[in-house]
From TrEMBL:
NCBIfam families xref list: hnRNP-R-Q (TIGR01648)
Keywords in alphabetical order: Acetylation, Cytoplasm, Endoplasmic reticulum, Isopeptide bond, Microsome, mRNA processing, mRNA splicing, Nucleus, Repeat, Ribonucleoprotein, RNA-binding, Spliceosome, Ubl conjugation
Annotated region described as Disordered, given as residue ranges: 468-550
Subcellular location: Cytoplasm; Microsome; Nucleus, Nucleoplasm
Superkingdom of this protein's organism: Eukaryota
CDD domains, per database record: NURR_hnRNPQ (cd21066), RRM3_hnRNPQ (cd12495)
This protein's GO CC annotations: cytoplasm; nucleoplasm; spliceosomal complex
GO molecular function, one term: RNA binding
Protein name per its UniProtKB record: Synaptotagmin binding, cytoplasmic RNA interacting protein
One BP annotation, GO: RNA splicing
Low complexity composition bias: residue spans: 473-490, 541-550
Listed Gly residues bias regions: 508-540
SUPFAM superfamilies with a match to the protein in the record: RNA-binding domain, RBD (SSF54928)
Length: 550
């Protein structure tokens, strides 16, 4: 109306002019200079708004700063990651960074090769963790750390039809393999090998062709160092059968994978056993099972050593056996947290290193029995009388509450084990297994000990069979540690690592680790008796008197 036009509103003819303008021109002009009753406003960037995903408002509502939300949403739009790929944990972790740090994290995430990343939420969390570590140490990834040759990796995956899952801590090839390779159940214990001394810039394209010669691979896990972008120097390969794993050790141990670079390969043993010190000496096995079952889950057995002079008391420590490595690791973290007390006291907890499985061909020739839990009254004469009924003996050697029985023929040793294992001798049930012969490295250690005037019984050492809850197969502190419980670990490798790999020191980190000097539970697998304290891996000698030499 006339009155309306006089109040400053647009004249009627102007409406007609605007309608005559083409839509594209009108939208462009309105985007840069739209008009209202108060005049012009700031320009509106409709191009950026048009490029945002439908999840952009959700990122703002979650509390991300505007710039961070825009950067992450840009990854959505580019198809590098979907909003559904990131869980609440990843978004919350990103919010803990300042704006500059969050933007840098997203840049690193974008620049990462995500083609083989299956869990992108966990990968983003790994990038954030690595960023904090680099920020703390003031380090950056060098330009030379470019990772694997993706063309070769793609060619490998196309040829084998295996999958590859990449995280910030490892690269997992297979697991399970394609059905064309293997359709059975997950391989049992004894099918995994440990590969050490791997060149840091070597990846699956060189490892897989080597190890698949031994047999079908279930998976290969190459451990990565997120700070350097290179591997940590070691990997685990699981085969579909034990035979293939053993063949891989024969074929690949000391193999020169590059000029002047030899890798080391051995059977890997998943560790599900903990050494626990500072146990009251008056406690029985049943009491220990009951107490630790209250504070940990998955406890399957307790291995307890009694004092030779007083069978009513233990030696102040024990071994806790769990259902699997995962439950053992959870129990270890809980017991080491400082929040859990057993009988009102803190306990010392370390990984107990299992031994490497012996060569079946070697064990099939063993003619020596290891006998433990002997009463104080048992003498070598009593042992000779009991065991000579099953075959001619070469020698009998008793050491404290255990002994070695040497038969002339293996058949006699087999019969004695079958008939006497678990039977009482002088009022105590005895436990018998075949002793394991030492290897060449053990002989070298023996020479070193003899040079140090330490006399040992080095003919054989105790090896527990898989289905016998032993005492043994693991080292433990000598009597001075048992008086007040195990000494706290003082060495750099006190915490140990989740898996036993004989002869290799890398265990979950880039650098080497050594067993703690105070805690003897971290030593390599030797007999089920007091052992000479040594580092991780390999067998250890049994302490004996001057006449214990072979």
């Amino acid at each position: 109306s006339e009155a309306s036009r006089q109040k400053g509103r647009l004249p009627g003819w102007s409406v007609m002019v605007m309608l005559s303008i083409c839509p594209a021109q009108m939208s462009g002009e309105m985007a840069t200079d739209h008009v209202n009753g108060n005049g012009t406003e700031e320009p509106m960037d409709t191009t950026a708004a048009a490029n945002r995903s439908e999840h952009f408002p959700a990122l703002l509502e979650a509390g991300l700063p505007q710039n961070v939300a825009e950067k992450l949403d840009g990854l959505y739009v580019a198809g590098l990651v979907a909003h559904s790929d990131l869980d609440e944990r990843a978004i919350e972790a990103l919010k803990e960074f300042n704006e500059e740090g969050a933007l840098q994290v997203l840049v690193q995430f974008k620049e990462s090769d995500l083609s083989h990343v299956q869990n992108k939420s966990a990968f983003l969390c790994g990038v954030m963790k690595t960023y904090r570590q680099r920020e703390k140490q003031g380090t950056k990834v060098s330009d030379s750390s470019k990772g694997p040759d993706e063309a070769k990796i793609k060619a490998l995956l196309d040829r084998t039809e295996y999958t590859l899952d990449v995280t910030t801590g490892q690269r997992k090839y297979g697991g399970p393999p394609p059905e064309s390779v293997y359709t059975g159940a997950q391989p049992p214990v004894g099918t995994e090998i440990f590969v050490g001394k791997i060149p840091r810039d070597l990846f699956e394209d060189e490892l897989v062709p080597l190890f698949e010669k031994a047999g079908p691979i279930w998976d290969l896990r190459l451990m990565m160092d997120p700070l350097s972008g290179l591997n940590r120097g070691y990997a685990f390969v699981t085969f579909c059968s034990k035979e293939a794993a053993q063949e891989a050790v024969k074929l690949c141990n000391n193999h020169e994978i590059r000029p002047g670079k030899q890798i080391g390969v051995c059977i890997s043993v998943a560790n599900n056993r903990l050494f626990v010190g500072s146990i009251p000496k008056s406690k029985t096995k049943e009491q220990i099972v009951e107490e630790f079952s209250k504070v940990t889950e998955g406890l399957s057995d307790v291995i307890l050593y009694l004092q030779p002079q007083d069978k009513s008391k233990n030696r102040g420590f024990c071994f806790l056996e769990y259902e699997d490595h995962k439950t053992a690791a959870q129990a270890r973290r809980r017991l080491m947290s400082g929040k859990v007390k057993v009988w009102g006291n803190m306990v010392t907890v370390e990984w107990a290193d299992p031994m490497e499985d012996p060569d079946p061909e070697v064990m099939a020739k063993v003619k020596v029995l290891f006998v433990r839990n002997l009463a104080n009254s048992v003498t070598e004469e009593i042992l000779e009388k009991a065991f000579s009924e099953y075959g001619n003996l070469e020698r009998v050697k008793k050491l404290k509450d255990y002994a070695f029985i040497h038969f002339e023929e293996r058949d006699g040793a087999v019969k004695a084990l079958e008939e006497l294992n678990g039977k009482e001798l002088e009022g105590e049930p005895i436990e018998i297994v075949f002793a394991k012969p030492p290897d060449q490295k053990r002989k070298e250690r023996k020479a070193q000990r003899q040079a140090a005037k330490t006399q040992m019984y080095d003919d054989y050492y105790y090896y527990p069979p898989p289905h016998m809850p032993p005492p043994g197969g693991y080292t433990y502190p000598p009597n001075r540690g048992a008086r007040g419980g195990a000494s706290p670990a003082r060495g750099r490798g006190g915490a140990g690592a989740p898996r036993g790999r004989a002869n290799f020191s890398q265990r979950g980190g880039a650098g080497p680790s050594r067993g703690g000097r105070g805690t003897r539970g971290g030593g390599g697998g030797g007999g089920g008796v007091a052992m000479q304290p040594r580092g991780r891996g390999g067998a250890l000698g049994l302490q004996a008197g001057p006449d214990a030499s072979p």
